[in-house]
Amino acid sequence: MQLLDELKEYLRIDGNDEDRSLSTILQSSIFYLENAGVKQPKDYYLTVEGKEVFALHRLAIMMLATHFYENRITITPSTIKTAQQPVPYGLQSIILQTRLVDPDELSQQQ
């Protein structure tokens, strides 16, 4: 499964009408996490001993992409106070946990 397909399933989106926007949101989510200090794996679907090693990384991407998708609003003087929605608290916790993970080290354990 590709990340875009997983995101569409996570958001319950059918069809391809929003693929371009979703791809942008997906890449922005990955860059956001990288800038927050979360190293991204080469293979998000790597399994070791039957366990998905980077499921938490994927969940962080899905949660952040959902946040970006659901909070699309044009910033104007009248919307400035309500437009800036903070990142969900649960996502902040996942970011802190995944910052400590070295994907290269985990990938070598396979």
Automatic annotation (TrEMBL):
Signal peptide: none annotated. This is Phage gp6-like head-tail connector protein. It comes from Lysinibacillus fusiformis. CDD domains: gp6 (cd08054). Gene3D superfamilies: Phage gp6-like head-tail connector protein. Pfam families: Phage_connect_1. InterPro entries: Phage_gp6-like_head-tail, Phage_HK97_gp6-like. Transmembrane segments: none annotated.
